[in-house]
Structure formats: structure tokens, C-alpha cells
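Q: I have 256 residues here and want to know how they pack in 3D. Can you give me a structure?
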Amino acid sequence: MLAAAMMLAALAGCAGSGAGNGAGGSTDRTLTVFAAASLKGSFTELASRFEGQNPGTSVTLSFAGSSDLAAQIGQGAPADVFASADTTNMDKVQEAGLLEGAPSIFATNTLAIAVPPGNPAGIGSFADLAKKGTKLVACAPQVPCGAAAAAVARSSGIKLSPVSEENSVADVLGKVVSGEADAGLVYATDVRSAAGMVESIPFPEAAGAPNTYPIAALAGSANTSAAGKFLALVTGPEGQEVLARAGFGPGNTVAR
């Protein structure tokens, strides 16, 4: 019995050391990507491709408004990559010394008006959003889509009075889809992704306030090699093809 006990202890010790040095234990790694809500469809596809190209690495995606993500990063939330829907929130993270290298611009986007099928409120222009009784939903001013909407309103001299201001473009779109709003200011890519559930009302004023999307690796990442590979995928031909198919404009991929 004593000999058997000693043998079991020895085997347990060997198993424990193997799991610790990777010689028989798991070598799986996780890459955590914080990305603007408008990137959900494209980045979900790119994450799947990345995992296929990099066996042993899984990608965890966290989507929210860029301002919320920047705040989380500033508060120490663990992440490896940040993709923002504007340069303002990326600049906040960079100024805090939380980036590993300079950001690269990988996409652009413009606003569109989303309305329920049939457009029951008869919205036909940006000015119609200010009509009395129109239930407009928009992003909060600190969110990139909200900042763009405010810029268009200022340049066109139109005062908007949203009945609700949301923390992400996905929340705005959700309120239009559910019928809680007559119209919502979202991105052209969001309207495309929700085809059949909403209709798009383009407006020329949107061209004056495009959104520029930067991406960067974060300082303190535990998986810097995978972070670099993910950035290369997003900014390279394969990533640009996926983004273009979703309706994004091209990025210049030049570090700022």
C-alpha cells in the first residue's frame, strides 16, 4: 500500500509539472479585442478567419460605444487591441500612454437615417428629423455617431431634439427596429446590416462629417504577437475586403 501511494504521488507530480511548462498542457491563448459597435458584423467574421489562420489562439470580442470602451481601457480593463469609430477616443487612450505603437486608420463610415419599413413618419431629409412630433433617436454626443450627427446639425443650421440619446449606434438601431422611434441616426453600414428590418434615407449633409476608424495594439498586452497579426489582418487586403463588403470606406492604414 505504501509503495502504491508513493507511485501515485510521483505520477501526480509529473502531471502537474507537464501542465505548467506546456509540454502536454494547454497552449491555447486568448486575444481580447475591444471594438466599436458598428464593427460587430465585420470583426466577428475577421475573428473567425483569424482563429482559423492561427490555431491555438481564440479571439474574444467586446463591442460597445467607442467612448465606453476607451473609458474601460483607461480604468485598466484587460484588452489587447482597440478599434475605435473615431480618432477622438483613440487619442484619449494614446494620450494616457496605453497604446503599443501608433494607431492605423483602417476604415471610414458616414451617417444615414434609419426608419422603420414603409417609413410611416414620411422622413425624406435631414431637416425632417427636426419636425415637430418626430421621434428621433440618436447617439449621445460623446459617442462617435453622436458627434458626427451634432457636426451635421451645426453645419446645416438644424436643431435636433432626440427623444433618446444612446451609448452606442447598435442601441439606436435597435430602437428603430423595435418601432420605438420614427427615425434613428446611424451609420450607412448599420442600415445595410439590418436590411429588411429598416429602410435607409441617405442625406447629402452626411458627407461633411465622415467617421474615421483607427486601430491599435494596447500596451501591457499579454499577447503582443497575436495582436500584431490581428492588426495586419484588419488593415491588409483580406480585412479591407470584408469591411468594404459591409459598406465601409477604405482606410489609409498609415500610422497617425
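Q: Anything worth noting?
A: The first strand starts at residue 29 and ends at 36. Residues 1-27 have pLDDT under 50 and may be disordered.
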